[in-house]
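Sample entry as discussed:
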Amino acid sequence: MNYPKTLKIFFTLLLGLILAGAVSGGQAQEGYYEEEMMQQPDAGIEVSDAELDKVAQAYIDISEIRENFQESLVEVSDPEMAQQLQEQAGEAMVEAVQNNGLDVQTYNEVMEAAQVDEELRQQLLTRLEELQ
C-alpha cells in the first residue's frame, strides 16, 4: 500500500473542504464548518456501492479543479484576484460534487468517515485507482 498517496488524497480533501467553506461564505456557514471539523467523524455510516462510486468520481473532479487552481494561483500576485480564483475554484468543486449526483454534506460525510473507517477507506481507494 502506498501511504504517501493516501495522505495526499486526504490532504487534497481537506483543501476541497476549506475551499467549499470559502464559497459558502457567511458567518453562519463558517461556524457550521468549524463545528463540523471539531466533531469526530461518524465511521458507522452506510454507504452504497453506487454512492461510493459517485464520491470517488467527485473526488477526481475536485482534484482536477484543485490542480488547475494551484496552477492559476502561481501566476497571480494580486490578493483580490487570488481570492476571486479561490472562490471560483470552490464553486467549481461544489458543482463537481452536485454534478455527480451528491450534495456537499453527503460527500463530506463519506470522506470524513473514510478517514476513520479502514474498510471504507480501502473501498474508496480501490475505486479511485480504478477510475484513474
